[in-house]
Design a protein that fits this description.
Blueprint lengths: L4 H5 L26 H29 L3 E8 L5 H8 L8 E5 L5 H4 L5 H4 L8 E5 L8 H4 L16 H20 L2 E9 L2 H13 L9 H7 L2 H15 L6 E5 L3 H17 L10 H15 L1
Parallel strand pairs: 1-3, 1-4, 2-3, 4-5
Helix pairs in contact: 2-11, 3-11
C-alpha cells in the first residue's frame, strides 16, 4: 500500500466546483480490500514518516528564509483538530512553528476588520504557522448566527447575499496577497460524522479526565448541524483556490486523519522547491580557516 499524489488530490476541493459533503466519507479508511489492521499499521507508518519528513522540510524552510507556511484547520466540534496538530507537528522544532487558537473575538479585535486578529499573527519567513480555527469563522459560525454581524459595528452592514459574497471575496484576495508575497497556504476541513461527534461528546461527559473539553454550547451548536454543513459547503466551494486549496479530510478515524494531513503537508513543502542557502567561495575559505583553527 502507498499514498500517491493522485490519491491525495482526491481530497482536494476543486476551485470553482460546487462541493457536496455527502460525497465525502467521514469514515473513509483506505483500501477496503486490505484488512483494517494492515490499513491502520500503514497509516501509522505514513504518519511516522511524515513527522520525520516535516521536521526535515521545516529545517530547509527555515534555512532558505524565503517562504513561510500557513496551515488552517476548521471543523465541527470534537473533530480532532487539537490532537491532529499535536501528533502531526510532534517532530517540528518549536522555534520554527507557532500555533494560534482563535476563540470569540475580544473587544479590541471587534474594533478592527475581521481579518485583523489573524493577520497580525501570520508566520514569518522560514516558519510554519498553524491556525486552529481562523478568519473562516466569519463565514461559518457568523453565517449560522447572522445576528453576530450587528455586534461587529460595521457601517451599514446587512448579512444578505451580497454581504457574504464580499466576505468570500475579501478572504480570497487576502490569501492571494499572502501567496504572492511568500506564504504558501493549505487548509484542512476535518470531516467528522454527526454520529461520531455525538460519540465523542458522550465520551467527554462520561470521562472525568475529559470534562474540561466539554462545553454546553458544543451540544447546542451540534443541533444546528445541517446549517453548519451548508455553511461549510458554501465556504469550501467559494474559497478553495489553486494557491490556497481546501482538503476535506475524513475524521471519524484519527489515525486516517493524521496520516493524510502529514502526507499533504510534506507534499506541499516539497513543491516549493526549496534549496539550502548557497555557500560562496568566500564562505568556504572562512570555513576552511575555521577548520584548521579548530583542529589545532
Amino acid at each position: 500500500m502507498k499514498i500517491n499524489d493522485k490519491q491525495l488530490d482526491a481530497f482536494r476541493v476543486r476551485p470553482g466546483k460546487k462541493l457536496r459533503l455527502k460525497d465525502h466519507q467521514p469514515g473513509w479508511q483506505g483500501d477496503e480490500k486490505v484488512s483494517k489492521k494492515e490499513r491502520r499499521k500503514f497509516a501509522e507508518e505514513v504518519l511516522a514518516q511524515g513527522v520525520k519528513q516535516l521536521a526535515e522540510a521545516q529545517e530547509k524552510l527555515y534555512a532558505s528564509d524565503s517562504w513561510s507556511m500557513l496551515v488552517i484547520f476548521q471543523a465541527m466540534d470534537a473533530a480532532g483538530k487539537d490532537s491532529t496538530i499535536k501528533h502531526v507537528m510532534s517532530g517540528i522544532n518549536p522555534q520554527g512553528c507557532q500555533v494560534y487558537s482563535f476563540k470569540h473575538p475580544s473587544a479590541e479585535e471587534l474594533d478592527h476588520n475581521f481579518l485583523w486578529r489573524c493577520s497580525k499573527v501570520l508566520p514569518e519567513r522560514g516558519k510554519i504557522g498553524i491556525f486552529n480555527r481562523s478568519y473562516f469563522e466569519e463565514v461559518l459560525i457568523v453565517k449560522v448566527h447572522p445576528q453576530i454581524v450587528l455586534g461587529q459595528r460595521i457601517p451599514n452592514a446587512k448579512p444578505d447575499a451580497a454581504f457574504w459574497d464580499h466576505r468570500y471575496e475579501d478572504i480570497n484576495n487576502f490569501e492571494k496577497h499572502l501567496t504572492r508575497n511568500g506564504t504558501t497556504i493549505v487548509k484542512f476541513f476535518l470531516n467528522v460524522s454527526q454520529e461520531e461527534q455525538h460519540r465523542r461528546f458522550l465520551e467527554r461527559v462520561e470521562n472525568p479526565a475529559k470534562h474540561w473539553k466539554f462545553a454546553p454550547s458544543d451540544l447546542k451548536e451540534s443541533e444546528r448541524w445541517d446549517d453548519y454543513q451548508r455553511a461549510y459547503e458554501e465556504c469550501l466551494s467559494r474559497t478553495s483556490t489553486e494557491e490556497a486549496p481546501w482538503y476535506v479530510i475524513p475524521a471519524d478515524h484519527k489515525w486516517v486523519t493524521r496520516a493524510l494531513v502529514a502526507r499533504i503537508l510534506v507534499n506541499r513543502i516539497e513543491k516549493l522547491g526549496l534549496q539550502w542557502p548557497a555557500v560562496t567561495d568566500e564562505m568556504r575559505a572562512e570555513i576552511d580557516t575555521a577548520r584548521l583553527k579548530l583542529k589545532k
